[in-house]
Amino acid sequence: MTERIRPHAERGGAPGGGAGLFDDNQPSTQLVSVSSGPYLEQLPVGNMSVGEVRRRFADRFDIDPNAQAVLDGQPVDDQTRIGAGQALMFTRRAGEKG
Amino acid sequence: MDTLQLEMALLRLRRASEATVGNAQLVIQDTKAIATSPEGASASMPLELLLGKVAAGQMSTGPAILPDGIKAIVSQGPIIIWAWEHPPRVYQFEWIANDSPRAFGQGTKYRKVRLALPYVIVLAVFLRSDGGLVDLLPKNECFFRSAPLKRFEDELCYPALLNCSKFKPPEGQPLSWICTQHLRPTPKMHSSNPGERFLAGFEALRHCLLETAFNYSSEHHEGTSWFSESRKVDPRLKTVEAWEQATGKDPLFVLEVPWLKTGHTLRQVIDRIFTNLHAGKHRIQSAAGMARMIFNHAQS
To answer: Contact B92/A91, CB-based, under 8 Å?
Structure first.
């Protein structure tokens, strides 16, 4: 059987399902840098609350329920709205060095 | 390599895999491997070279799915080093307060500080046992850079952080040791799954560096910290208050700071760690070395 390749115009962006770097209409303006433990990703969660991100990514990012949310270096509560381009970190403060 | 050259390389690969020497005999004698064909033809080569060829080019992440930010993995003998990079960002740290009654330990007073850091590079050092399991060693190092790592020849700078220790003299010691005295091993660090042990060890180290409180223990135990050493390089680092203020004005200022240069590239720092830990001595170079491995395996 002759293999049929989907026309380029119908393909949905870069390999892996993500939008291609030069694709139009990518929601890059909503991207937020989210990190927890060793995980660090750019996610389209701009305008969501910290609590929503915590709930939606708790399993994927192994977010400790007691982790403190820190937005651009400021501790915030779960009601805080996240702005596009901000950096959200979930940190577990414990102990000291030395 | 053009298409024709690529085809030829694939052909050579296929022929090499088809070429067998029936009932050949291999003898390892001292530092030489001697092969003899059924027809009596004989050839020899240094054992170390043979083992290098056998293991050559085996790129693999081993048993682990790598965490975000791992830029390179390098190993020598039983030592494995993960090079991790975290991009510039603003952190909130617990930092020793100016009016703390103690320099470190019980009774130390801390306050929250908001500090921008440039690219943070962590070299996590693991030891692989004869049984194949890995353990995080307390020999891990931290560095700063103003740009992302692109080559092993990129220079590393010292991190302006408390508890990243400067040893005096530095010979035989880490260049920028991450104080892990109070690192608490997690249950997953004792897992029977090698991949899980890697990840748990790395995460414990990352947590210890970035999420536990900073104090003056390095100044007391090792000589000094790279925060104390870096205070002269830029007025914005002279005090932690100045650093906070500069962060508030423009967090990207950390990409313009002339961080103290180590004078070592990433490759050189990694080689230095291997040397300090005598990793090269574990390389198999002789029949006795191979015999030791076989005896150890039989006993494990």
So the answer is: yes
**Contact check, Cβ <8 Å, B184/A95:** yes
Please give the helix or strand (H or E) that residue B233 lies within, else none. none
Instruction: Measure in Å the smallest separation between the Cα of B276 and chain A Cα atoms.
Output: 22
CB within 8 Å of chain B, chain A residues 46-65 = none
- Spatial contact of B78 and B283, defined as CB atoms under 8 Å apart: no
Residue in A with minimal Cα distance to B105: A98
CB atoms within 10 A of CB A73: 22
Chain B partners within 8 Å of A90 (Cβ): none
Q: How far away is chain A from the Cα of B153, in angstroms, using its nearest Cα?
A: 25
* Residue-wise pLDDT tens digits, A3-16: 666 555 444 444 43
What is d(CA B297, CA A30) in angstroms, rounded to the nearest whole number? 55
**Counting Cβ atoms within 10 Å, is residue A52 exposed (0-12), middle (13-18) or buried (19+)?**
middle
Judged against a pLDDT cut of 50, whether residue A21 lies above it is answered with: no
Q: Sorting pLDDT into bands at 50, 70 and 90, what band is B3? A: confident
For B215-234, what is each residue's pLDDT tens digit? Answer: 999 999 999 999 999 999 99
**Residue B20, amino acid:** T
Contact criterion met (CB below 8 Å) for B77 and B281: yes
Nearest to B82 by CA among B206, B192, B218: B206
Cα gap B244→A1, rounded to integer Å: 66
d(CA B257, CA B237): 9
Count CB-CB contacts under 10 A for residue B164. Answer: 28
Is the complex ipTM higher than 0.85? no
Segment (H or E) for B281? none
> What digits encode the pLDDT tens for the residues B165-180?
999 888 999 999 999 9
Query: Rounded to whole angstroms, how far apart are CA atoms A22 and B266?
Result: 33
Judged by a CB distance cut-off of 8 A, whether residue A73 touches chain B is yes
Q: Take residue B291 and report the two structure tokens written for it.
A: 């015999």
CB neighbourhood size of B101 (10 A)? 8
Distance from CA of A88 to the nearest CA of B (A): 10
Q: Using an 8 Å Cβ cutoff, are B154 and B265 in contact?
A: yes
Whether the CB of A70 is below 8 Å from some CB of chain B: the reply is yes
